[in-house]
Structure formats: structure tokens, C-alpha cells
Amino acid sequence: MSEDIIVSGEDALRVADALNSTSMRVLQLLLKEHLDISTIADRLNLSQPYVSEQVRKLQETSLIRVSYESGKRGIRKICELAVKKIVIEIQPF
Fold first, then answer.
1. What does CATH list as the number for 2-88?
2. Which pTM was predicted?
3. H/E element, 73
4. Tell me: the pLDDT tens digits for 4-32?
5. Domain boundaries along the sequence of the chain
């Protein structure tokens, strides 16, 4: 896991757009352990489709990494934190 990520410009906008109260809670869970989508949804008392959407945004911004492994009913999407600190630099136009 990388300690921090520094983003600016368009990347900063994408990261800021991906961060909301739910995604922050997902990141906090992943700070402690790697979890699959259904476990994250259960722990946050949210629907799996909503958590999947949040995870997709976090993955697209490189804040989490995803791997796949076999589960009881198909493939499980396992999430892990990719960074511990996010720095958003504000730059002039």
C-alpha cells in the first residue's frame, strides 16, 4: 500500500467527486482488512449495488485495488486500500 497520493487538476476533481460519506466509510473499513463487496455492504447496512458503484469510483481513482477470488456463489470482488493519505492540490487556472 502506498502511504499517500497527491492529485491535482482533473485528477483532483475525479478524486473529490468519488469521495462522499459512504466512500469514506468504505475506505475506513479497508484500512483494517481486505473485504469483499457483500461484506462491506453488510457492515455498512447498504445495498450491494450501491457499494459496488462506490467501489468502482474508488477503483477508478486508484484509491483502492480490486482482486477476484472464487466464492460460494461465483466470483468475489475483494477490495483493499491502495493509499492511506490523499492530498488534493489546488492549482490556479
1. 1.10.10.10
2. 0.86
3. none
4. 889 999 999 999 999 999 999 999 999 99
5. 2-88
